[in-house]
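Input/output pair, single chain:
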Amino acid sequence: MKKIQVTDVILRDAHQSLIATRMRTEDMLPICDKLDQVGFWSLEVWGGATFDACVRFLKEDPWERLRQLRSALPNTPLQMLLRGQNLLGYRHYADDVVRAFVARSAENGIDVFRVFDALNDLRNLETAMKAVKDNGKHAQGTISYTTSPVHTSALFVQQAKALQDMGADSIAIKDMAGLLTPYPTYDLVKAIKAEVDLPLVIHSHSTSGLAAQCQLKAIEAGVDRIDTAISSFASGTSHPATESQVAALRGTEWDTGLDLSLLSEIADYFREVRKKYHQFESEFTREDVSVQINQIPGGMMSNLANQLKEQNALDRIKEVFAEIPRVRKDLGYPPLVTPTSQIVGTQAVYNVLANERYKTITNEVKRYLLGGYGQAPASVDAKLQKKAVGNEQVIDGRPADGLKPELAKLRADIAELAQSEEDVLTFAMFPDLGREFLQQRAAGTLVPEPLLPEAETKDRIIGSSVATEFKIDVHGETYDVAITGVGDVGGGKRKLYVSLDGMPEEVTFETLGEYVSDKTSSGRKKATEPGHVTSPLPGNVVEVLVQKGDTVKEGQALIATEAMKMETELLANIAGVVQEIYVGKGDRVTPGEVLIEIK
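Output:
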């Protein structure tokens, strides 16, 4: 009799998939005693976007979260998702940083490391996998599942065998987009189990509505473990419900042995918790079989929808969905998982909104085409590569081989704020964001983003007797708007706090008497001339690359901006002299406003 083991993802991937990774530690700890009694093979609690969300939005120390969960779950192995040489960031780190991060993660409580690479370039897993083994922990080698002309069962079997040779303790099939269907799942599991004598795990999102069926076929084919989510955070772009799968297997040769009554109590708890985060719910996290056509993971859909809303271009989302497979083909069919999902998705948005393919090419696409993320699964488009990187030398070897040790410099750069090695690693993952977090901690000013009440009351609007919740139509799309507060910022300007489709926003208005038609809402001039440099997407300035008075060439990079966690260089449309620079590092920018003026 083969008992199927269960890894529950309620504390990581489930809320990452459904409420933008916003669950706070204070809502995890009260239920940990019951979670610890269930008998899960492991609980996934860390990694992925949780580290980013803790620092960026929740203003929690992610390392302290891990320590608290370790203390509250003494009997259950804790698991994390690690992006190989990318760790938890969006670039490759030097080997010394990878080794240090794995060591500190193990010391703080991680028992199982699910290690993957977005391109399935297994060279990018070597250092992390060895570090896991050196720290005496479970190394789970991972195959990022996707479909394309080059992704075959034979290729995935070959990768599984290579991971076994690398020292993997188990193998995971990571179906992040919900692309698996039941019968190919059966065949793939059979093929891997025939060649690899290691426990095999299936991780499949319910985006297409097929994941539960895929898991049952995988079990019939010999899979050893399944990933599920407590039902109150299951289905849609999350995972099959734990209780449903436990019930489906009860009384069979694969019976999990888990207690349905206890699981039901845990589900009741999280059902109430989820209500607190209603503002992060999205229609784009529902089940949608169209993922089988466009291959876009649910979380990626949400990001794209929010980005296009900022542009008042949500009506063009179907164009973006159609463009994504074309960009993916141009880039050699990378699986759409972090960070390649952001790389492909953001480039598709640029292509659509510019009404011209590759008019603007993000820095990450350039880095990708230079081999900076590893080897593409198939050949990339030669014309695109030439346009993006010219005659620059493409990296053939393991990208991290070209990186010098960086941990000592990181320690020195953040020495005035870091209280531990963990702080240094937080800074390493997200330098600007990490420094800001540590500065706020030192100043005692860490404040998490607000959670909106379930029902906003009118008394938050001074003297209001009019509707504070209503719908508006823009470009054929309907938006739910709730006004949650107002404030006077002086100078004839007023700040309005609103919830737009459940997401909190701030809007600053000028009174009609002071409205200036040639300026944007930020007060900057509108771009009207070829020498006016503007951004094609909303974002933040990462770096200004020129100074006032500089002579620049047409096509020269002037500003680096970040949008959707991807960097892009804004280029000069004309040759000339920089007359004015209206932005600095960290400034928010929106399309249509002049950032630099050239004459």
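The chain has 21 helices and 20 strands. The longest helix spans residues 260-276.
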